[in-house]
């Protein structure tokens, strides 16, 4: 088997209550966020154990210590807002305008410090300021610019320079705005095997893909415009809730291992991603599955056939034109 050096990237969408308030009642979100904090600490320990750097794409509002209303207005400095017809309210309608102590689901500077206090050096990236959907046709370039400017300002108060971006709901849009604000890499949407199918058929085929643990579709990073790289995802680590409980953990782990093997065989990328709240349901099993994937990646990195980067470090590596193919890899290395 002719082996090449593969690459692994792990990115995490850190959003707490900001990610789903258009779909889930706020009390449920706040309870989920409390549980999520527990799993974040466990995940950080696991990443440290296997020396896996991750990109923590963080909603900018979470970096605030708190915020207040001024003459009844919420974040009047972040204007204009997106004008979504499907959400006919002010986007900040659920912002408690309190503090991190009073509303830990909406502010999380403490989590930021947890991430920065680990032995492994993680990347803090942007997941927008308020989880708006840049790729939605009703989000203007001006609204995206105002949101990203606010995210940059919140990060700068912690001496964080944002270089990578993960689009909320993976809705890619306004790449020119990202580049103008200094973003150098973003996570593009995962490729799909079932592009021509829709509805129930699509859901059925996607479920079978996860159930059988089929290898993720191979992906490669691409410089989509000068200085801006697309580092697409290809393995969403699916939660164990609802019908997804039927998918064995072994299938999730097998999909991850196959993704790593494929990246090495083809000299390409394995990009694992999820939200920390995806670990809430059956957390012990979910973290055990991640540990198996991380241990496997760690072993192959020790063998010199796999690199593990944050998004920005990988972008730097690509931009420098580094990385050479390695010699033949023995089959038993994949055991």
From TrEMBL:
Example GO BP: carbohydrate metabolic process
List the InterPro entries: Glyco_hydro/deAcase_b/a-brl
- What's the protein called, per UniProt? NodB homology domain-containing protein
